[in-house]
Amino acid sequence: MFTERARVMKALGHPSRLLIVDELSRGERCVCELTELVGHDISTVSKHLSLLKKSGIVEDEKRGLQVYYRLKTPCVLHFFTCIESVLRAGKE
Q1: 69 close to 58: Cβ distance less than 8 angstroms
Q2: Which residues sit opposite 29 in a β-bridge?
Q3: What pLDDT was estimated at residue 29?
Q4: Domain locations in the chain as residue ranges
Q5: Span 2-90 CATH architecture
Q6: How confident is the model at residue 19 (pLDDT cuts 50, 70, 90)?
Q7: DSSP label at 69?
Q8: How far apart are CA 38 and CA 41, in angstroms?
């Protein structure tokens, strides 16, 4: 059980993946949009997305030549709220 939890936390443990999850909280995006947002090449962004998908955070759907991603488990956003609380408490 702790191993699975650690896998999810590890998936969220990179600034680019946090940025992707934050962007997907606003709705689904194609890989091309996420690549532009993150500012890395498509291969790097695809690796980040693959890790997020394997951990169960995002899911994808191919439409024509494009692949679109969306949050599979939007509850992960509660984790962001928790992190912000920890950061605020650390400044007190």
Answers
A1: yes
A2: 69
A3: 97
A4: 2-90
A5: Orthogonal Bundle (1.10)
A6: very high
A7: E
A8: 9
Question: How is residue 32 written in tokens?
Answer: 């091309």
pLDDT reading at 13 higher than 80:
yes
Helix H or strand E segment including 68: strand 66-71
Q: How do beta strands 29-30 and 58-63 pair?
A: unpaired
- Measured from the Cβ of residue 88, the count of other Cβ atoms closer than 10 Å reads 9
Nearest to 15 by CA among 39, 31, 41: 39
Q: Is 90 exceeded by the pLDDT of residue 90?
A: no
Please report, in angstroms and rounded to a whole number, the separation of the first and last CA atoms in the chain: 33
User: For the CA atoms of 45, 46, 48, 51, what is the dihedral angle to 10 degrees?
Assistant: 180
